[in-house]
Design a protein that fits this description.
Elements (H helix, E strand, L loop, with lengths): L5 H7 L13 E2 L5 H8 L8 E8 L1 H15 L5 H6 L3 H12 L6 E2 L2 E4 L5 E6 L1 H9 L5 E8 L3
Parallel strand pairs: 1-3, 4-6
Antiparallel strand pairs: 2-6, 4-5
Helix pairs in contact: 3-6, 5-6
Length: 149
């Protein structure tokens, strides 16, 4: 989802209060339309997800992503999983997240099925790796629970 103005962005994310400690590197959005539409109107009866902002250590976020990836690829090793976090992209994210550039990164996302299992779609591996490398103890994470399958 792309916003035409800052006021439109603020209206959509009014209920997502990003703690000030994250204001340097993260922007209060996900850039995933299926999640952002659920954030826009939490009372809309046909939204895809119920969403909330939480915080967690980057390594916990990565472990959750890895465990989910192994459901579909049981032979996937931790090293193979982490190889997906390409160093050049992680370096760019580190610059953004540390405040050395004006660019901010979207909040990582964990999505759950209506049964409470992690879904196959996750977003934020490279951001979590960058956060670890920057020594961040916690990162903001949008958690969404799907309303239907």
């Amino acid at each position: 989802m792309r916003f035409r103005s800052d006021s439109q962005r603020r209206a959509v994310f009014a209920n997502i209060n990003l703690p000030p400690r994250y204001s340097v590197g993260f922007k209060p959005e996900t850039e995933l339309s299926m999640v952002d539409l659920s954030i826009r109107d939490p009372n809309f009866p046909y939204r895809d997800y119920s969403v909330a902002l939480t915080e967690m250590p980057p390594d916990e976020f990565l472990r959750m992503q890895y465990d989910q990836a192994r459901v579909h690829e049981p032979e996937l090793t931790w090293e193979g999983f982490m190889a997906g976090a390409m160093p050049m992209q992680v370096e760019e994210l580190r610059k953004s997240m540390s405040g050395t550039t004006e660019r901010k990164v979207p909040i990582p996302v964990l999505l759950y099925t209506k049964e409470g299992k992690l879904s196959g779609f996750q977003e934020g591996r490279k951001r979590a790796v960058a956060a670890e490398q920057l020594g961040m103890e916690r990162i903001p994470v949008i958690v969404g629970v799907r309303h239907y399958e």
